[in-house]
Amino acid sequence: MPDETALQQAQDQLNALLEAARSGQIIPVRLPGQIETIAELLKSAQKEHAQALDEAASKAGPADMDAYMQDEAYFVGHAVHELRTPMTSIRGYTDMLGSMGELNDMQKQFMGVIKTNIKRMEGLLADVSYMNKIRKDTLKIEKKMDLFKNIAMRVEKNMETVAEELGRTLIFETPDGLPLLMTDGDMLALAIGKFVENGLRYYEGDEGKVTVSASADGNTLVIKITDNGIGISEDDLAQLGTIYFRADHDVVRQYKGSGLGIPIAYGLVKKLGGTYDVMSTVDEGTTFTIRLEGMS
User: What's its EC (predicted)?
Assistant: First the structure.
């Protein structure tokens, strides 16, 4: 099995926080930093697993590799579950602390930072879980008849808070007469959401905008996610989709991302039987295009 050091450290620190919550010994001013440390340990653990998997792939035969991937998928899935359990309890205790009376301005600020870090940690755990399932081909895809208009509404609901927090404009253009889909609407909405979030975050200025548009090319649904952000250089485009890759740009580095969003989106589109491509111009923006065959 891969080295479990970073993952075990994350688990130990979460367990310590949970015990502190149970005994009323949480120190609010320290909690944001503690959660941040756990998030970084989790990212390190996932990188260790990815490196170990790559090393195993170069050495093992097909049968050995299949067995290794099954073991590794089980381990990461189990680890994510074990980390989510105390995080849920910590979030509950934090909500309880916030309702125990009037808070002063400093306490409100601490609670806001704590909740932001918990939300980020939960998002990271979800991303690690999705990436693990995509890489090991264990992600469940449940296809059913769906309209893109319904899927777009899910994306809008999931992303509107992010757009508001960042002060960005999010536009959806979904005309009538689009091809009917046989797909997993939740997974498609998740993939589009990853592209949308990428566009919302990486912008300099006060007029950031992301547009999700759809059109029909015969019986093919064409979805475009266009932003007017910082764009992506040719060198970075060549690495886009690589797990943990993040561009070396000040705007990108100011957000504590995991480098899993675009790889997850690409993996989901492929699992759904679609194709994707990207066009980008530095300082002008980026367009991701998804193509999915409609029902015959």
Answer: 2.7.13.3
